[in-house]
Amino acid sequence: xxxxxxxxxxxxxxxxxxxxxxxxxxxxxxxxxxxAGLRYRLNVPVPGMSRRTIDITFGKDRIAVFMDGCFWHGCxxxxxxxxxxxxxxxxxxxxxxARDRETTRHLEQDGWTVLRFWEHEDPADxxxxxxxxxxxxxxxxxxxxx
Length: 146
Hints:
Layout lengths: L8 H9 L6 H12 L5 E5 L7 E6 L4 E6 L1 H4 L12 H24 L3 E6 L4 H13 L11
Parallel strand pairs: 3-4
Antiparallel strand pairs: 1-2, 2-3
Helix pairs in contact: 2-5
């Protein structure tokens, strides 16, 4: 799939500025997790899958957290349909969503708990859901919190 010609210099510049890591929603969730005493690793490669990373990982508990952007991952509430180069973008975004499903399946088959959240979700709600998933893991798999 060759890249189309950008519809304008402004659109091209805006797309280049899009961050794939350390987005504002992700940073907000991470701050809340850290404040709650939870420790995690960032951008860990997906075991057995090249060129894929987990946004937030609790490795010993085998919990993978993904913070999905509404545009890039096809949020049912907020995804937009670009008018310029529409066919190229539809193919690109469909592949992103298929890759997300494949990654989730792969991790779950390997015994991981996969949590996916949209960037528009309230960071406090997301952090609570992550903490609840982590706290539901058997205590024997990790050292006790002090």
